[in-house]
């Protein structure tokens, strides 16, 4: 038990570290609400990477060439790795990997809305890389400066890999856009489907973002949802022109007077439906994750038995 004076001093130290833009480390005292916010965000982020393997995993057996298959496999493997870094970062806050997995497979945890959409065409591999990884980078580069050390450090490595992913997606779309009319149409159709969901990845508009004020005060978030969405659109416009694809928003234009992009209203009803578990692929994503967990039970048992055998052998040798 700590005394009220000790608690006040700990809080003051925490506030001073945040004010000085220093990092909070796992051994440091932190308010319970800060810990809970980080567990929430980091575990959701980890779940997104893990569930995020499914839409692309769908194309590994059908990639159009051996080279494309190898690249796609490497990308999906990177996503598994990102999930593991993030789960490890969350574990430093006191939650176990098993708890996080249970929350996910029981449908109690959120993961990014974007992974509840289907991938019916090969061009979707390009659109996911260009738009989904592009949005992920925009959101995650500022998280490299998040106040919690293990999260910020995980982000540095993740962002390096995401920027490679984004380029490979762009290159898939560029190849299609330099191809036949049918390939160009496939690329455009895919961009039309992924554009709006990728804008939703940044979260609700600022005035409906309940967590933003506190997360910004704690320097977990450095920019608001709408600021990052604007930055993302600004990044896409010249890239879309280079690709020769049209962004599916007739209202999209630069507003010189206000220094921002004007755009059509995002369909927030669709966003809320996806978050409520009623998106096109929510049920399938959870079913597949649950099945993978159950199918992997023997691997976990074998690994635990091996670890026990090894530590028993080490105890005898010592
Ligand atoms: N989907 O008050 P806010 C990737 C929830 S990784 C689902 O604004 P906050 C890599 C939010 O959790 C993509 N839920 O919340 C890849 C909150 O609910 P809660 C994942 C969403 O936390 C690429 C409620 O709405 N990236 O793509 C979404 O301040 C390709 C109210 O929202 C991250 O997780 C959404 N889109 O801001 C992998 C980045 N948006 O928890 C494979 C880290 C909001 O109170 C292939 N996370 N919600 O019940 C963040 O930066 C923040 O958590 C935000 C949301 C910006 C997502």
Automatic annotation (TrEMBL):
The record's section on InterPro entries has:
Aromatic_CoA_ox/epox, Ferritin-like, Ferritin-like_SF, PaaA, PaaA_PaaC
- Ranges that cross the membrane: none
Instruction: Mention one GO biological process in which this protein takes part, according to its record.
Output: phenylacetate catabolic process
Keyword annotations from UniProtKB, A to Z: Oxidoreductase
What Gene3D superfamilies does the database record attribute to this sequence? Answer: 1.20.1260.10
Name the EC number(s): 1.14.13.149
Q: Name one Pfam family in it.
A: PaaA_PaaC
Q: Name one GO molecular function term.
A: phenylacetyl-CoA 1,2-epoxidase activity
Q: What Gene Ontology terms describe where this protein resides (cellular component)? A: cytosol
The record's PANTHER family line, in alphabetical order, gives: 1,2-PHENYLACETYL-COA EPOXIDASE, SUBUNIT A (PTHR30458:SF2), PHENYLACETIC ACID DEGRADATION PROTEIN PAA (PTHR30458)
Protein name, per record: 1,2-phenylacetyl-CoA epoxidase, subunit A
UniProt organism field: Microbacterium lemovicicum
